[in-house]
Specification:
By secondary structure, the protein is mainly alpha-helical. The protein has one domain. The chain is built from three helices and no strands. Helix 1 (16-41) packs across helix 3. The protein starts with 15 loop residues before the first helix and ends with a helix.
Length: 81
């Protein structure tokens, strides 16, 4: 694991398997919330919905590039949405 995640008052997960499980599990959890929201988003039309979903995914990917544990967690959750 990266040493930056183990210092500087950040959340410490020393077990690599737990870290990988958490990062992998956040996307399906975000997908649950995305599925609950999609009904209200689809009322604006298919093209607008796809554009909004694409922008959300691009922003989420940008957030995961920030080297911070909480940004990584938030970005992975947003990628699921």
């Amino acid at each position: 694991m990266f040493r930056e995640y183990e210092a500087k008052d950040m959340l410490v997960i020393k077990d690599k398997d737990i870290f990988n499980s958490l990062m992998s599990g956040l996307v399906p959890i975000g997908a649950i919330f995305g599925a609950l929201m999609i009904g209200s988003i689809l009322q604006y039309g298919r093209k607008a919905s796809l554009m909004l979903i694409s922008v959300t995914f691009i922003v989420a990917t940008g957030i995961t590039l920030i080297f911070n544990f909480y940004a990584l967690v938030g970005g992975r959750f947003l990628q699921g949405i």
